[in-house]
Specification:
The structure is a single chain. Helices cover 54% and strands 9% of the residues. It has 311 residues and is of the alpha/beta class. A six-stranded parallel beta sheet has the order 3-2-4-1-5-6, sandwiched between helices. β2, α2 and β3 form a beta-alpha-beta unit. The radius of gyration is 20 Å and the shape is globular. The chain starts with 5 loop residues before the first strand and ends with a helix.
Length: 311
């Protein structure tokens, strides 16, 4: 039985990660494991660019559709779930392939994670309620007082991370930086290869993202968000599930805060900004095998590198 390494398929939005994972599954006995903080949610298919039901039937992906949009999911939970899936793959003689664009999840799996405790539910509810009533500015100022290191690191409009940092310090009395200084939990003990799908033509990639988002609208993305509002009456734009790129903008349109055209434009801009953050993250990664998706037969190069690692 081949001694398969764990394969990580990383890359920014619109780099072809899913198609590359399917290619590998056609050439190796793969166990595909999604690493995407949006694909974990049920009833969120179009706006997350979730692989179709036909693809998921032919090429099953672990950690897709595992929780309700009302639930929360952390990097630590992903680390635990992914480790279980890797053990499952190895017991079946398959190659674990971690595919997705949530690099913090991958980092937590590879390096382990700082022991940040769960935030107290009452603290989270209070922070969310205050954000709803006051906006992000006063919460950011409070974070500057309680956790100046995190506040300095974050942009004043980075709502999700500001709320997270504030929740941690209010719940535990310690800052994120305090926890990051502590020893990490259990790094990945198996050999692995990290492939980063890259591209140089940013303009072409941006055009592809714009085209894909317009296709989502045609495919019924707005109706999907309307369905979420009906099925989950307590759901709102402050839930982590609805912070996925595109969802918050469609929520604002449905709530009458902007026109449909404005929502689409802002969602496309947010998608491009997210891809830029992903590209920035990849530049700071170590032990990467960069793969240009603009090169002919780039997937064959990945195939060859894996064959060499197995040998």
């Amino acid at each position: 039985m081949p001694n398969f390494p764990v394969i990580f398929l990383m890359g920014p939005t619109a780099s072809g990660k899913t198609d590359t994972a399917l290619y590998l599954a056609d050439h190796f006995p793969c166990h595909l494991i999604s690493c995407d903080s949006a694909l974990i949610y049920q009833d969120m298919d179009i706006g997350t660019a979730k692989p179709s039901k036909e693809i998921l039937t032919s090429y099953p992906h672990a950690l897709v559709d595992i929780i309700s949009p009302m639930e929360r999911y952390s990097a630590e939970q992903f680390r635990q779930d992914a480790r279980e899936e890797i053990e499952k793959a190895r017991s079946l003689g398959k190659m674990p392939v971690i595919v997705g664009g949530t690099f913090l999840y991958m980092k937590s799996l590879i390096e382990g994670i700082s022991p940040i405790p769960e935030v107290k539910p009452e603290v989270r509810e209070e922070v969310i309620a205050r954000h709803h009533a006051e906006g992000i500015e006063p919460l950011y100022r409070e974070l500057q007082q309680l956790d100046p290191i995190s506040a300095e690191r974050l942009a004043p409009a980075d709502t999700q991370r500001i709320l997270r940092a504030l929740e941690v310090v209010l719940s535990s009395g310690q800052t994120l930086n305090d926890f990051w200084k502590m020893p990490s939990k259990e790094a990945l003990e198996y050999p692995y290869l990290k492939f980063a799908l890259t591209y140089q033509d940013i303009q072409r990639a941006n055009h592809s993202m714009e085209k894909r988002f317009h296709q989502m609208i045609e495919d019924g993305f707005i109706a999907e968000v309307e369905h979420l509002k009906i099925k989950y009456p307590e759901l709102n734009g402050d839930y982590p599930s609805q912070r996925a790129v595109g969802y918050r903008q469609i929520w604002d349109y449905l709530d009458g805060l902007m026109t449909k055209e404005e929502a689409i434009e802002r969602a496309i801009i947010a998608t491009r900004q997210y891809a830029k953050r992903q590209r920035t993250w990849l530049r700071s990664e170590t032990n990467l095998i960069p793969v240009s998706v603009e090169a002919p037969d780039f997937r064959a190069g990945i195939h060859q590198a894996i064959e060499q690692a197995i040998e």
